[in-house]
Amino acid sequence: MSGQTWDAQRYAENGRFVADLAMEVVGLLAPKSGERILDLGCGDGALTDRMKESGAEMIGCDRSPQMLAAAEARGVRTVQADMTALPFAGEFDAVFSNAALHWTRSQREVLAGVFRALRPDGRFVAEMGGLGNIAAIRTALQAVLRPYGVDAEEHAASFFPSKDEYTALLEGAGFRVDRMALIPRPTRLPGGMEDWLRTFRNGVLQDLPDDARETVVREVVALLRPVLCDSAGVWWADYVRLRFKAVRG
Q1: pLDDT at site 246
Q2: Per its UniProt record, what InterPro entries does this chain match (predicted)?
Q3: Cα separation of 31 and 52, whole Å?
Q4: Are the beta carbons of 73 and 8 closer than 8 angstroms?
Q5: Where do the structural domains in the chain lie, given as residue ranges?
Q6: Which of 168, 136, 29 lies closest to 48 in space, CA to CA?
Q7: Residues 151, 36: Cα–Cα separation, whole Å
């Protein structure tokens, strides 16, 4: 697992676009009244709460106590668990996940837990980072952190698979893949690149001394400005999303 930690307030300020841009994958899920659905990696529950409007019984699951507290404050029912060790067995009509699966490389453990959690013919619908996701940001971090003896890729422990790679993982876990798409999606950053780094890569930055952390952030931002900041001064992240629907065999 990555060393990433989550600040619910900072995430609300700088990461709300994650939920706001999730309507297409929610449409692929098509939650129905009376269904019981697990939102895996629910974060602060903003999207989970929105999906309750379908009439489905939504259960949020996350490992971050702070994020779960924010979700519960919205009225979301939650369970604290690591996605690699889910405690469910045949309880859900669907498992949903948005922007969470890529935070671990232990994908076989995740998929085995999702498979167990689903009822027969239950569906698993998710969107995650895919091949090429935030490639420029990752390259800049790797270059700037190398003199500090930090391997940014190893430290982040993220997983951004191709369609073929994740199809094989799903089929190996017993799923039938119904839909799989790799979608480039340049994404506007409301707080700019510096705030994005502090929100989504604090696991890489947090072990540096304070003065070194500030230097690293400045250097990464300077490297990225020519490619991810437009002429109006607006920052964009080079997101690539992997969106899929699979069915428990």
Answers
A1: 98
A2: Methyltransf_11, SAM-dependent_MTases_sf
A3: 9
A4: no
A5: 8-134+158-189+238-248
A6: 29
A7: 41
- Percent of the chain residues topping a pLDDT of 70: 98
Say if CB 13 and CB 195 are below 8 A apart. yes
Q: What CA–CA distance (Å, rounded) separates 62 from 249?
A: 25
What is the per-residue pLDDT across 196-247, written as a single tens digit (0 to 9) for each?
A: 999 999 888 988 988 899 999 999 999 999 999 999 999 999 999 999 999 9
Q: What does the block give as tokens for 160?
A: 């951004």
Digit-coded pLDDT (tens) for 127-137: 999 999 999 99
* Domain 8-134+158-189+238-248, second-level architecture: 3-Layer(aba) Sandwich (3.40)
How open is the CA angle 50-111-205, to the nearest 5 degrees?
75
Cα 193 from Cα 186, distance rounded (Å)? 13
Place of tokens 């952190």: 145
Q: pTM to 2 decimals?
A: 0.94
